Amino acid sequence: MAEETIFSKIIRKEIPSDMVYQDETVTAFRDISPKAPTHILIIPNYIIPTVDDVSEKDEQVLGHMFVVAAKIAREEGISENGYRLMINCREHGGQEVYHLHMHLLGGRPLGPMLAR
Ligand code: AMP
């Protein structure tokens, strides 16, 4: 079993979060340290530590994360102008929390994809 992170406690509502969406497979909540006017994390309700741990059994939930991201973006009013979905993997990717999560960022022009 993969080690739990703070995100498991957020899913189970054992610690507070600004949750914007939850269903049987995914949970979405506002990032505690937002990098854009909209900064929401979308996570599977079970632990996949990194993208490198993804396998075929995860295909449905990963696809669902995109559906939920698009729905939340529409609700946030950022769909028309656009936004960015980002998943960091391990050290070089800048991953801090080892429970796979998709960042939904928008609400202002986000600039180039990587810092130069
Ligand atoms: P990453 O660097 O891709 O692993 O992103 C981890 C993100 O989780 C960072 O943007 C943090 O600000 C965010 N984060 C960490 N702890 C919490 C928390 N308790 N509630 C909401 N967001 C969090």
- Our measurement of the CA-to-CA distance between the termini, rounded to an integer number of angstroms, reads 38 Å
**Which distinct ligands sit in these coordinates?**
adenosine monophosphate
Write down the Rg: 14 Å
Q: What string, H for helix and E for strand, traces the elements in order?
A: HEEEHEHE
Give the assembly state of these chains. single chain
CATH superfamily of the domain at 6-54 and 66-96: HIT-like
- Note the beta-strand portion: 15-25%
Tell me what the CATH architecture of the domain at 6-54 and 66-96 is. Answer: 2-Layer Sandwich
CATH class category name of the domain at 6-54 and 66-96: Alpha Beta
What best-fitting shape do the alpha-carbon axes yield?
Answer: globular
- Enumerate how many helices there are, as a single number: 3
Low-confidence segments, given as residue ranges, are none
Main sheet: strands, sense, barrel: 5 strands, antiparallel
Name its key features.
single chain, HIT family, subunit A, globular, binds adenosine monophosphate, five-stranded antiparallel beta sheet, alpha+beta, 5 strands, 3 helices, 116 residues
Describe this structure in words.
With 116 residues, the chain is α+β, with helices and mostly antiparallel strands. The chain has a domain of 80 residues: HIT-like (HIT family, subunit A). Helix content is 24%, strand content 22%. A five-stranded antiparallel sheet has the order 1-2-3-5-4, covered by helices on one side. The longest helix is centred in the middle third of the chain and has 18 residues. The radius of gyration is 14 Å and the shape is globular. The N and C termini lie far apart (38 Å). The site of adenosine monophosphate has 12 residues, from loops.
